[in-house]
Design brief:
1 helix; 3 domains; glycoprotein; Immunoglobulin-like; four-stranded antiparallel β-sheet; about 40% strand; mainly beta; four-stranded mixed β-sheet; cell membrane; transmembrane; 24 strands
Amino acid sequence: VLDVNDNAPEFYMTSVTSSIPEDSPPGTIIALFNVHDRDSGMNAFITCSLPENLPFKLERSVDNYHRLVTTRALDREQFSFYNITVTAKDGGKPSLSSDAYILLQVADINDNPPTFPHVSYSAYIPENNPRGASIISVSAHDPDSDDNAHVTYSLTEDTLQGTPLSSYISINSDTGIVYALRSFDYEQVRDLQLLVTASDSGDPPLSSNVTLSIFVLDQNDNVPEILYPALPTDGSTGVELAPQSAEPGYLVTKVVAVDRDSGQNAWLSYRLLKASEPGLFAVGLHTGEVRTARALLDRDALKQSLVVAVLVAVQDHGQPP
């Protein structure tokens, strides 16, 4: 009786692994199996194959026993599972074939630290902010899974003006939202430099850091302070002398003032608010210089002395001033 190729190869699985860690070394055994064909001769000669571009290979031993092994380390973040098709084909004409299907899950290893999308962050907060105001939210992503991807946030402890940063700023460990713990004063603290750490919950945990710069914005909360002429402590007004022969433009005095704010809030202008002798003096808008606007009149010169009261207003350019 001559054999006819009327039987396809049959798989007999000895052992199959359903899951392996992604850091398994090359050569890790996934499956052991035997392939049998009930025909004879070339009709029973079996070759096994895998699809191309998979990180696996087949190793043949004796009597049609095969091993399915890895060829390189796997990466769960690229492929979390593989549907592997093993094809067995006999040598008949025409040949017959059959397939075996193996589903392999790739188990996660904590091999990725959390990463921030930016190399640094900047945030701004106006001074006189309410306590507990949120400033910025930072977020880091971990491509691992489960606990290995659970990210918590913390601030690296440091000091500012001798005080722990943790008394100025806090961060929600789960959300990454940064909060102000106190009301900031621009004239005392203008910026804070923080280091935010994102850690996963793997064993051991992995972490990464990012720099956070917080800038306090000035508010117009300081009035100009007059440095000169200094007001007498007895409540009287300051006195400056000018000769009766003074020509127009003669410098009588200069009002000097400063503003503790910054920028436009500290730009000062001067104006003559009131004078007991109208038209005699003028004040420089930006310099604060008090100069004679005209020569003394004949009637003024007849007097042995002339006392003129001058009231100068100093105003910043804040909104409102």
